[in-house]
Amino acid sequence: MIGKALEEFFIRIWVVVKLTLIFWLLALTGLFVFGLGPAFKVVTELYLEHGFDYKSISVKQAYQIFKRDFLRANIIFWLYTSLSLLLAYNLYLSVQLQGLLFLVIDFILFFGLTYLMTAFEYTMIFDSQFEISFGNLLKMSFISNFISFKTYLKLLFGIVLIFVLTWQFKGMILFGLIGLLQVYSLSVTKTWRLKVEEQLAE
User: What predicted TM-score, i.e. pTM, was given to this entire model?
Assistant: First the structure.
């Protein structure tokens, strides 16, 4: 019983490591600037399709997905990155100003940043799971945070916790960050994704 549990634990660890290494390999293939978005999409789709079946997760399939979704994944990634940088810059300017009004603005901008972070996760997950137009993909991702606010909080808390752990243990950046992030995100959003799937099937 303990041996089986340990085997399952190490399999899950290896899947997280394998997904993260595939991410960095693909990101490097796209010279990072054009590789981060597609690599993120690949990791999401691989785990969504294979789960913890580590033998089925292959570099060959990863490259196929990378090439197939290269343009679309880059558009998604840089759209969210641009919006996040815009909000972050405005937040940087706002925190330097005093007053209650600017405190409220700080809060709104900070909420906007966290909202974009979770919306990006939803976008990558939905794009990996469903065949959907780009416009509807963005709409569904943005409204998901409001419709399932509990899931939004779980997702946000988990992402922040993973980044804090990564800050403490820098080795996770290379061997665990992205894999752990997507395994957690897909796990937390599973119930909501099933509801979305039912709605799209009707």
Answer: 0.90
